[in-house]
Amino acid sequence: MTALALILTLALSLLLVPRAVEAQPSAKVPRIGLLSSFSPADQGPHRVDTFRQGLQELGYREGQNLLIEYRWAEGHPERLAALAADLVRLQVDVIVTSSTLGVRAAQHATTTIPIVVGGAGDLVGGGLVASLAQPGGNITGFTDIAPDLNGKQLELLKAAVPGVSRVAFLDAASSQVLHWHEAQAAAHTLAIQLLPVEVRAAQELPSAFAAMTSQGADALLTVLSVFTLVHRRQIVALAAERRLPAMYQGREFVEAGGLMSYGTDRRDQWRRTATYVDKILKGAKPADLPVEQPRKFELVVNLTTAEALGLTIPPALLFQADEVLR
After folding, report:
1. pLDDT per residue over 37-86, tens digit each?
2. What is the DSSP secondary structure assignment for residue 62, as one 8-state letter?
3. CA triplet 295, 118, 293: central angle to 5 degrees?
4. Per-residue pLDDT averaged across 198-216, rounded?
5. What is the pTM of this model?
6. CB distance 322 to 298 below 8 Å
7. N or C: which end of the chain has fewer CB within 10 A?
8. Contacts of 325 (CB under 8 A, 6+ apart)
9. What is the DSSP letter of 136?
């Protein structure tokens, strides 16, 4: 009887083991919500692609051990609130966004889901985080604000165009006060007069460039924003039409035919944005992760555009460039 009982026990064990394994809950696959003010074409190779690459380097495989929900505002900021609310409804584990507009939309949608910023304006001044060192709340990531950035842009512009004296300052939002003050201080040092030009709609751009010419502008400095990035091809074309050497803040403008850009290396920044997501998925709290300022910058020069403008870029400036487009 003892032997028979043992055989029956073993048989039952073999029958029950597969069911026990089947009953084990599968590991939850984390889900990221990517909220963008742009279209895939505008926020593709220098942002989203390098973000995904950063995730891959950390061991994540989209569609396997990680899901990403994409929400594109296509350059229409009024859509951001509904898109953010949709991600909250899906109960994503982290929301990744960029631009101050995107961060505000995500913040209004949730105070509990972690929000990682791939790059935005003055997060502290805008009341989005308490401080860079201790952001508090559910927001952390990267700010695009860097000391003396506008000063360096004007310095490089004057190196490329030594005779420049009147620079149009194209701004798409009156909220960019910080950029204006920094640029003003740098312009004074370089004996440059800044001519503020503000636009809020694409149809205002031709008249804005006409105003620059009538004011005697001999160069252009453009503030990076959702508006200027979305309409970069029109801005670049108008600058070429008015024969204005222009300094931009993102390489996307130079790739569209602009003369030169100096600003945050966004490929590096978005790759490192993935590390914030990784830390949060592993249990870190956004409030405990300091907001980082840009630490890597890039200078990109378009020699074809320089030649079209009749400019000879000094060899010393070309030597400083991270990339020269021909």
Report:
1. 988 887 656 788 999 999 999 999 999 999 999 999 998 999 999 999 99
2. B
3. 25
4. 94
5. 0.86
6. yes
7. N
8. 254, 255, 300, 301, 302, 303, 304
9. -
The third-level CATH classification (topology) of the domain covering 149-264+298-325 is Rossmann fold (3.40.50)
Q: Among candidates 249, 286, 44, which has minimal Cα distance to 146? A: 249
- CA distances 98 to 94, 141, 256, Å, are 13, 9, 21
Tokens for 149, please give them: 């950035």
Strands 297-302 and 260-264: antiparallel
Cβ(243)–Cβ(217) below 8 Å: no
Question: Strand order of the sheet with strand 260-264?
Answer: 193-198, 166-171, 219-222, 246-248, 260-264, 297-302, 323-325
Q: What is the pLDDT of residues 119-135, one digit of tens each?
A: 998 899 889 999 999 99
pLDDT-based confidence at residue 99 (cuts at 50, 70, 90)? confident
CATH 3.40.50.2300 domain extents, the chain: 31-144+265-295, 149-264+298-325
Give me the CATH code for the 31-144+265-295 domain, please: 3.40.50.2300
